[in-house]
Each structure stands twice: as C-alpha cells, then as structure tokens.
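Encode chain A's predicted structure.
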Amino acid sequence: MPFAWWTAHQAKYMTLRTLIFWPHLIAGVLAGSVILLMSATGVLLTYERQLIAWSDSGFRSTDAADGRAPLSLEALLTTIRRDHPDLEISAVTLASYPAAPVSIAAGRQTVYADAYTGRVLGESAQGVRRFMTQVRAWHRWLAVEGEGRPAARAITGWSNAIFLFIVASGIYLWFPRKWTWQHVRPVVWFSSGLRGKARDFNWHNAIGAWSAVPLFIVVLTAMPISFPWANALVYRVVGEEPPQQGGRGGREGGPPREGARRDRPQPALGGLDALVTKAAEQSPGWKTINLRLPASDRAPVAFAIDRGDGGQPQLRSTLSLDRSTGAVVNSETFSDQSLGRRLRSISRFAHTGEVLGLPGQTIAGLATAGAVVLVWTGIALALRRCRAWIARRKRTEKLDPRHQETAA
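Encoded structure for chain A:
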C-alpha cells in the first residue's frame, strides 16, 4: 500500500505541516537579516509624523487669550514679505487650533510664523527630520545610494515578499493541533521560567499568534510600495487601468529650479482671504488647510484640506477655486475617487497603520516590534536545530560500524 499513510488523518496532517514548515524555516534563514533590519527600522518609523511635529512644538503663535483674531492670510503674507523679502513663498499651511503657527514653504525651507502678528518664529528643526530620512533610507533601500539603489530596492522588496510567505505559513504553524486550553495556552501565552530553546519556541509562537493578523496586513500592503506590478495589481483587481508611472514634472509650489523664479515678481495676494474662507466652508471640521500660491495671478488656487491627523486619506479632499470669481474649478473628496485609487491610498497608509489614526499606528508598531522578536527567535531556533542535527549525525557516525572501519 504505497499511499496507505494518506488515509490516516494524523499522518496527512503531519505531512502537510512538514511541507509548510521547511519552506517557512528556509525562507526565514535566507531573508532573516534583511527582514530584521526592515522590522527594526519600521519600529523607529512608527511615530515619524508625531516626532517631527514634536521637534517643532516650540513654535507657537501668540496667546490669544485677549480675544484677538489671527491675521488674515493676505495681511500675514504681506507682513512676512515686508520683513523677509528673500523668502519666495510657494505654499502656506493653516491649522485650526488657536496656538498653531502658520507653516510657510519657501523653496526647500519650511519656516513658521505667528498667526497673530506675522512674525517669523524660525525654521523647522532638522535633526529629527534627518534622522527619520536616514532610517527610511535603510528601511526602503538599505541606505544604498547611486546606481546600486535599484538592486537594493529589489533586495528589500523580495525580502518583504518572502516575509509575506513566512507570516502566512506561520499563521498555520502557530496554531495548535488540538483546540483544548491545555494545547492552546502554550501557543498564545507567555510561560515564565523558560530558557534556551523552550523560551525561544514559546516567544516565537506566542508573539506570532498575537501579531499574525496586523503583521500580515503591514507586510501585504508593503507589496505595492515595493513592486510596480503589485501597485498595478491593486487597480486591475477592480477592473481599472493603473495610472502611468512617470515623473511628476515641475509641480507647482515645489522647490524652484535654480534661477527659475529669481527674476519673477511674486504673485499678488488680493482675493486670497475670500478663497480661504470658502475652502474652510467646504470642509467643516477641517484641521489643516494647505494652499499653493499660483505662479500666475490668473491661475486657480489649489487647496489640500485635511480633517484627520495627516495619515488618513479618507479624511482628505482637494479644491481648486477660480482666483477672480471664487467659483469651484475642481473639487475631489475621497469618495469621488475611483475604487482603485481609494484602495491604493488605504493600502499605503494601512502599511503604517495611519489609516486608523494613532491607535492604528500603535498596533502596526507593536506588530512590527513583534516581527523583530519573531525573526530573532526564528533564527535562534534554526541554529539550535542545525546544531542538534550535526550532533546527531556525529553520534550516528560513531555508532555505525562501517564508519569505524573506514576511520581505522
């Protein structure tokens, strides 16, 4: 009966488990070091936006306890232009809470101004930004610069794909064979007093069981970031043609090219106050409004309005208003976008957990921290297994008479 074992349920279970276990182990050994690096840097990036905001928290507008209203946008920009004619302002971000400063983008600089006086408070802190930029470079392309970056991105991308298989197969391997508390408890709960292999096994299983679902989402949603074909797949699964991949060109309001605006007069400010008021009315409950100053006095004024904390695409909208009449040239909310665009936006911020706000970030960060322990204990268990196999082989060779005769 060559296939009699297949009729036995337990033997079938063990065969399936073995077929999953060995690719799981080999994948972890092959890509473990890169996955460990991406997980560790991912933990550092968990609260990136909040840390950058904290680094600039010293910039605050004048206390408005006396009931003063903040300056209108036109008055504020006029004051800044008068006191700092060297600043070529390209964009302005207003925040809704009273003590918030006004953020001014001027070329590659970001400066803050007092919303009540127009006084420039200073330039944004660079220490945390530089640190996060470096961490992100390690996370995405191993901090490789120049011609080697595409190869480094391929390494991190395929390591992420391998990690997706590891997490998916781990979900099966982590679950106990029998669903009784006696068998479930060692898998989902930490046991005290364990050392060595028993400790690593317990940590690997317990952390894996608790972090499996959020970690699967974090790793899966990194695929469209890593591979163009995965990004296109998000659109194609809902029957849409993916957008063309190409350069963004000279985006209005971005850093000016050398000499691009030096001799060009700055646009007039008249009419901006009415447009800002209309943009605010379009999105009650807004938290930030970003507007780009158009290069031409006749060009529409573009607004990006956010009702969330910066990482929730479902709470963002864009609005373009005619400069002279205030008529709506274009308006788009999250629900106005195609299903493919919505899925792509959600997947981008599901990778960091930001789509669910601070609780989502925290869950994603904890799951990523769990991945660090999973990789570490997985490699440790693999090394222990390898050492045990070598020891068994040596013992077998010593007990094998044929080996003894050969050695003699």
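The longest strand covers residues 89-95.
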